TrEMBL record:
UniProt xrefs under Pfam families: ABC_tran
One GO location term (cellular component): membrane
Coiled coil: none
Superkingdom of this protein's organism: Bacteria
Annotated keywords: ATP-binding, Cell inner membrane, Cell membrane, Membrane, Nucleotide-binding, Phosphate transport, Translocase, Transport
InterPro entries xrefs: AAA+_ATPase, ABC_transporter-like_ATP-bd, ABC_transporter-like_CS, P-loop_NTPase, PstB-like
Source organism: Novosphingobium sediminicola
GO BP of this protein: phosphate ion transmembrane transport
Domain ABC transporter: 24-280
Protein name per the record: Phosphate transport system ATP-binding protein
Length: 285
């Protein structure tokens, strides 16, 4: 898929959710891998209790943008971001900055504490990454890091998390078996259960179904639709049908820019930009 710079200068159409509904609000974000700039002035408003999908051709910056939201890139030397990522009244990129016109805070201030940030904004990766421990411990491990709970309370958290991730029925009789003994699709739902067990506000998913068969994908999608009653979800996907099926808002990116951001129903039926129209009709790629 080759776009020259002229073709990519397609303008942008951004129809954000109202300010009071935004849990995260990315404004004018630039991102750099060393000297290589991967994001250019990106805006991403994320509505609370909704699923936001990020789509676009390979290399357009979807995963990079997702990785900025819980600052996981901070663990890698040479990577840095500039701009504003507003979360609970605070600019994550500059916690001391006085932010005007920020969405209302609904949770704890992060105060520059990245460990707290990653507990509030959890992440599930492309390949399932269960810990080499029992199914039960996969979930209990993270909870213990954040809270002191009794065995009975932990049993309840494990059951609730697995139920919400649509996995309980398949594993309830083998909680002491290794997480690695599950199928790929089950492992991915275990990772979702692990992510939500610590009750984050936001769950980030980077192409979580790319390694799954259609049945496992359908189960994961069902789980995500249920989960948005309790959590906000941002998902990167190459699967346009999936984005159209499950998301409330869609952001279409091209060459490091946010070209179109709109409610998904409208965006897929009537793309506002020629670039997104070409992309969803398969004219490119
Ligand atoms: N670790 C890295 N070091 C240097 N450049 C990187 C790194 N990771 C990504 N990039 C570059 O940043 C740009 C955006 O990459 P990114 O992975 O965010 O795109 P993407 O839209 O998620 O792609 P895909 O759909 O193929 O996963 C690309 O030009 C890519 O080559």
């Amino acid at each position: 898929m080759n776009f020259d710079a002229k073709q990519a200068d397609v303008g942008s159409v951004i129809l954000p959710p109202p300010m009071e509904q935004r849990v995260l609000d990315v404004r004018g974000l630039n991102f750099f891998y060393g000297k290589h700039q991967a994001l250019f002035g990106v805006d991403l408003p994320v509505a609370r209790g909704k699923i936001t999908a990020l789509i676009g051709p390979s290399g357009c910056g979807k995963s990079t943008l997702l990785r900025t939201l819980n600052k996981i890139y901070d663990l890698y030397p040479g990577q840095h971001a500039e701009g504003q990522i507003l979360f609970n009244g605070e600019n994550l990129l500059n916690p001391r900055e006085a932010v005007e016109d920020a969405p209302p805070a609904a949770g704890l201030a992060i105060n520059g504490d990245n460990a707290r940030l990653r507990a509030r904004i959890g992440m599930v990766f492309q390949r399932p990454t269960p810990f080499p421990m029992s199914i039960y411990e996969n979930i209990a491990f993270g909870v213990r890091l954040h809270r002191n709970v009794s065995r009975a309370q932990m049993d309840e958290i494990v059951e609730t998390s697995l139920t919400r991730a649509a996995l309980w029925d398949e594993v309830k009789d083998k909680l002491d078996k290794s997480g690695l003994s599950l199928s790929g699709g089950q492992q991915q739902r275990l990772c979702v259960a692990r992510g939500i067990a610590v009750e984050p506000e936001v769950l980030l998913l980077d192409e979580p179904a790319s390694a799954l068969d259609p049945l496992s994908t359908a189960k994961l999608e069902t789980a995500l639709i249920e989960l948005k009653q309790s959590f906000t979800i941002v998902i990167v996907t190459h699967n346009l049908q999936q984005a159209a099926r499950i998301s409330d808002y869609t952001g279409f990116m091209l060459m490091g820019k946010m070209v179109e951001f709109r409610p998904s129903g409208e965006a897929f039926v009537r793309p506002a930009t020629a670039a997104m129209r070409d992309y969803v009709t398969g004219r490119y790629g």
